[in-house]
Design goal:
It is a single chain. This protein is an alpha/beta fold. Helix content is 35%, strand content 17%. Helix 2 packs antiparallel against helix 3 and helix 10 crosses helix 12. The chain is globular, with a radius of gyration of 21 Å.
């Protein structure tokens, strides 16, 4: 089953291997990436903030020093989501008033990527306050999907996915609370991974209205939100997760043929368009013919409708910093503890499910790449099989893994036709908490079956 690929450029590990083998220098790898940005980004607008001069300086330093054994990303040019701090570059979250206020230091994740040998050549575009499945703002403009310039690349890590899909860079790091890594991967036909909550630190990923205040120190990562990578293959995803992780992850290798999978393609209040269902069903049929055991329903699946309501409440409180809701009401401490209890129940129910199943397969979103619009997707209607459905219904599919803090890998499975355009389609592979590398390995095995 083919899926649309836009580039044959090397991935992250392949680039690092070529540099180690002396086939090109770090400076040449960085220069080639910057040249690709120059050729491609005029029509895509993925790169919000260039970091070219500093990247060249770092490249020359790495060439002079040579690779170390602990640098799996040695010499790899990459980008990172605009919302992460990179020393000397602005972090705006799409707000013009922060455009000329450079970050004083690198985010912790940026420091870890650099220590692993990566070179940050720039920061990729986002929607205002990271709250849309599109990526446009009054500071840096609108990012287009490299498969179709009339469509969104997704959001909020849309610039990240567009840069990777088009071949500008082999990888990027984004964030995800409402599908913000998984949906762009799905819309752009690349690989993305939502990490287990708490695995990759987000220190240095703070709203500039807070982080630029004198004396501000982030105390902890926000609830629900995670940092996760985007790449063009599974091996690159795995090493990016390992580089960013707070602690070493265990691998529990298990052949896909020995796994028991649960596929969920229908949920209450979450219709899925035929453009997504058709390639999903085709993929499931191909896996079944290959001998993979897949159940289509289970009483163990947690009550997604109930948990979705709690997820929405928790996400809205988190993203607003506890500010009053549109109706003027502010969540109380009792409200928050009730949500934490609901989350604990959700986690326990998923643990019971994963005692019987290895992984759950599901759509990342109910539609393929949406047309550009001036309003956020969640404030408009989604066209699903010719009917207008509330834009927020798509969050059911992202909340499935977000509320219980589960890892989820999105892989490209094929393509579909949505509103007259052929576009990439992805699938989520959701696993138990801390089984991030196993999720990625299972997704790779699925991809090998689907694409030969």
């Amino acid at each position: 089953m083919a899926y649309p690929q836009l580039t044959d450029k090397s991935g992250a590990l392949a680039t690092a291997a070529a540099i180690r083998a002396g086939k090109l220098s770090v400076a040449e790898a960085v220069d080639a990436a910057i040249v690709r940005v120059g050729k491609l980004d005029a029509t895509i607008d993925a790169l919000a903030v260039p970091n070219f001069e500093a990247a060249y300086t770092e490249a020359r330093a790495l060439d002079a020093a040579g690779a170390r054994a602990d640098q799996p990303l040695f010499g790899v040019p990459m980008t990172i989501k605009e919302s992460f701090d990179v020393a000397g570059l602005p972090t705006t979250w799409g707000h013009p008033q922060f455009r000329n206020k450079p970050a004083p230091r690198d985010a912790l994740l940026v420091r870890r990527l650099k220590a692993a040998g990566a070179i940050i050549i720039g920061k990729t575009n986002v929607p205002v306050d990271l709250t849309d499945w599109q990526s446009f703002n009054p500071v840096y403009g609108r990012t287009s999907n490299p498969h179709n310039p009339d469509r969104s690349p997704g959001g909020s890590s849309g610039g990240s996915a567009a840069a990777v899909a088009s071949g500008m860079v082999p990888c990027d790091y984004g964030t995800d609370i409402g599908g913000s890594v998984r949906v762009p991967a799905h819309f752009c036909g690349v690989w993305g991974h939502k990490t287990t909550w708490g695995l990759v630190p987000k220190t240095g990923h703070d709203h500039p209205a807070m982080s630029r205040r004198e004396g501000f120190v982030a105390a902890a990562d926000g609830p629900l939100s995670i940092a996760g990578p985007l790449a063009r293959n599974a091996a690159d995803l795995a090493v990016l997760v390992e580089v960013g992780a707070e602690f070493p992850l265990l691998r529990r290798p298990k052949p896909l043929a020995e796994c028991r999978l649960l596929a969920i393609t229908a949920l209450p209040g979450a219709p899925v368009d035929a453009s997504v269902l058709e390639p999903t069903e085709a993929a499931l049929e191909t896996l079944g013919r290959a001998g993979v055991r897949i159940d289509r329903a289970s009483d163990l699946l947690p009550d997604q409708a109930a948990h979705y309501r709690s997820y929405l409440k928790m996400m809205n409180i988190t993203m607003s910093g506890g500010a009053p809701a549109p109706d003027g009401k502010r969540a109380t401490a009792a409200d928050w503890f009730a949500l934490k209890n609901a989350q604990a129940t959700c986690i326990a129910e998923w643990e019971a499910l994963f005692a019987e199943y290895d992984f759950v397969l599901a759509p990342p979103a109910p539609v393929l790449a949406v047309p550009h619009a001036d309003k956020a997707v969640f404030r408009t209607a989604l066209n699903i099989d010719g009917r207008d459905e509330p834009g927020g219904c798509g969050l059911v599919w992202s909340g499935m893994a977000t509320f219980p803090g589960l890892p989820s890998t999105v892989l490209p499975i094929g393509s579909g036709t949505y509103l007259g355009a052929e576009l990439p389609c992805g699938m989520q592979v959701i696993g138990p908490r801390w089984a991030d590398l196993d999720c990625i390995a299972a997704a790779e095995a699925i991809g090998n079956i689907l694409h030969g």
